[in-house]
Design a protein that fits this description.
Number of helices of chain A: 8
Distance between the termini of chain A: 13 Å
Oligomer: heterodimer
Shape of chain A: elongated
Number of strands of chain A: 5
Helix content of chain B: 25-40%
Structural class of chain A: alpha/beta
Largest sheet of chain A: 5 strands, mixed
Mean pLDDT of chain B: 96
Helix content of chain A: 25-40%
Low-confidence stretches of chain A: none
Strand order of the largest sheet of chain B: 9-6-10-11-1-12-19-18-13-14-16
Largest sheet of chain B: 11 strands, mixed
Chain lengths: 198, 399
């Protein structure tokens, strides 16, 4: 089983443009989406993937935000450091970029990867758990390989993503099938075992 | 393969706080959209939404409360209260698969606190995943739980997973559905910035106009809904509301900002679900569409209908519930299943409220003014997400 696992510190640039057909899309990406596109790009490089390949992606519990919360707090606080409805509408609103929603919605990473790799089949976006992600794969339609991925942004701003092509048989034997740990742990573990065997 | 049935339900919606109230609202074309009452929208450029009603009044809550958690708890209470048979399944044979939206953030309390600007924002963030975890604990659901978060198809993907699981295993019961509310300062305005809201300036109840030529955008709604899915041979026939016979999910892989205008992947999802149901498009009696009221949605769904039904696409009755309850995002598809159950149980296609002027770009047979009486055995339910995901369900009248 091939697995890709990537990790970027908060100050590291994610080389997502190298993995995009339409490089202008990068402005829509959160750091998790950018990293996931790199991981999926590395995994699928040189492969001809069936467009109907099922894809399931699990996003981790959000521990770090870089969507401009501090800026909103700054512009919406009155002189007594209290929330001001007037300032929220007059200044807070303009400080929220329309692009923010693309970074906030949990299904965007999955959708951008599907666009990049022309995946049009069965899919699902999951929140957090390894069991949730693998269960989706276990009950996927057909018996082909399944593309699974996960991502997580940690409290210190570090982002991790992983992707793998997996079969139902491999899912059935995975120790994570009934685990409530975050799904990114599947890929960290697979990557560790792969590195160890090399 | 097992037959899978819906054998229990609990609903908290903009039409009322029970299954009966919500069904009555569908029947009578009640309009749940109005000016927002639960939180301060002074000076907002837009203030329309479909808020949850309790005893005909908007359900009120403090800003530090995640409304969607309240709604799904109330829906679960109704469902567990009415369906005692769930207790016959030991905790390890109960599974929870829910769809929901993004985490709630209480910006007002955060700014008013001493934590603002310190980076200690997590105390003001209510995580959707944790809601499901607490539900599982409260209702002794120990067979596993999963949380789907694919925006507007989150809840239908959760129901789809539940259907697939129960087709393959016996002696399990699955609680599924969805819960969401984006009716708060930050989420409401964030969504406003996307430019997807209705620009209607007339009566609030007319703001969401699915398929109408003068539609101008969506209106947000909120609520929670829980279903019991069971293998048919384990269910009491008198509890069965409908049989689930087909499900499919596809991806447009087109643009994240707009649906594929040709509706190809949506049609593929529908055709796949119809095949799984063991029928043909000719057997579908009516279609409950996503019908958001946005300019781009109706033509795309119309194109998909043409691909699914061929020349029959202008004849088959269609319906959208969003004119009444708004767009519940992470709970929308599950909530709209009450319309499907209404059709199967009452043998009627509901009228789509606010549909007045047909749009030549979406030449569909939208039922207006009064429900259409019809012999209904199979209903096709379609939903699509912001981002390009599609789901299709086929539900059958139980016999």
């Amino acid at each position: 089983m091939k697995v890709v696992f990537d990790s970027y510190r908060i100050d590291e640039e994610i080389p997502v443009r190298e993995y995009l057909k339409n490089k202008k899309l990068h402005k829509y990406f959160s750091r998790e989406t950018a990293s996931a596109l790199v991981s999926a790009g590395k995994l699928l490089a040189g492969m001809e993937i069936d467009p109907d390949t099922p894809i399931y992606y699990a996003t981790g519990i959000v521990e770090y935000e870089d969507y401009g919360l501090d800026r909103i707090v700054e512009v919406c606080s009155d002189k007594d450091k209290r929330f001001s409805q007037r300032l929220f509408v007059e200044k807070g609103l303009s400080s929220i970029s329309p692009l923010t929603q693309f970074k906030l919605l949990y299904n965007m990473t999955l959708c951008f990867i599907s666009i990049e790799h022309n995946l049009i089949g069965d899919n699902a976006a999951i929140y957090s758990s390894a069991a949730g992600l693998l269960t989706q794969g276990l009950y996927a339609t057909g018996d082909s390989q399944i593309l699974i991925g996960a991502g997580k942004v940690y409290k210190d701003g570090r982002v991790e993503t992983g992707f793998s092509l997996i079969t139902k048989e491999e899912i059935l034997h995975s120790p994570y099938l009934h685990s409530t740990v975050e799904a990114i742990e599947i890929f960290r573990d697979l990557n560790y075992k792969r590195s160890d065997s090399e | 393969m097992n037959r899978v049935v819906i054998s229990g339900i609990g609903v908290v919606s903009p039409l009322g706080s029970s299954f009966e109230e919500s069904m009555s609202g569908v029947e009578n074309g009640i309009k749940g959209i109005d000016h927002i009452k639960n939180f301060n929208t002074d000076l907002f450029p837009m203030d329309l939404a479909a808020e949850v009603k309790e005893s005909n009044s908007v359900y009120r809550s403090d800003l530090d409360i995640d409304r969607k958690e309240v709604f799904i708890n109330k829906a679960m209470e109704e469902m567990f209260g009415k369906n005692k048979f769930i207790q016959n399944y030991p905790p390890e044979d109960r599974i929870l698969n829910m769809g929901t939206g993004i985490d709630y953030f209480d910006i007002v309390s955060y700014i008013d606190s001493n934590d603002a600007g310190s980076g200690k924002w997590e105390n003001y963030c209510k995580r959707s995943y944790k809601v499901a975890e607490r539900l599982a604990t409260k209702y002794k659901i120990e067979g596993g739980f999963s949380v789907n978060v694919a925006a507007c198809v989150a809840s239908t993907q959760a129901m789809g997973l539940s259907f697939r699981m129960l087709k393959n295993v016996k002696k399990k019961i699955i609680i599924t559905g969805g819960f969401d509310s984006m009716l708060s300062h930050l989420h409401y305005m964030g969504f406003y910035k996307l430019g997807a809201f209705s620009a209607w300036t007339g009566a609030p109840g007319e703001a969401c106009r699915p398929f109408d030529k003068n539609r101008s955008g969506l209106v947000l709604g909120e609520g929670g809904i829980a279903f019991v899915f069971q293998p048919e041979d384990e269910a009491d026939r008198t509890d069965i509301l409908a049989e689930v016979t087909g499900y499919s999910s596809t991806m447009d892989a087109y643009m994240v900002t707009a649906p594929d205008p040709e509706g190809r992947a949506l049609a593929n999802a529908a055709l796949s679900a119809i095949r799984e149901a063991g029928i043909t498009p000719q057997d579908i009696d009516c279609v409950h569409l996503h019908g958001t009221g946005t300019p781009m949605n109706a033509p795309a769904e119309s194109k998909a209908m043409e691909l699914i039904f061929g020349c029959r696409f202008k004849e088959i009755p269609v319906f959208s519930l969003k004119g009444q309850i708004g767009h519940l995002i992470g709970a929308c598809g599950a909530m709209e299943m009450i319309g499907v159950i209404y059709s199967l149980q009452n043998q009627k296609v509901p009228a789509t409220v606010n549909f007045k002027d047909p749009d030549p770009a979406a030449p569909l047979r939208v039922i207006k003014d009064n429900p259409l009486e019809l012999n209904i055995n199979h209903v096709l339910k379609l939903n699509s997400s912001f981002g390009g995901q599609n789901t299709a369900f086929v539900l059958k009248k139980y016999a």
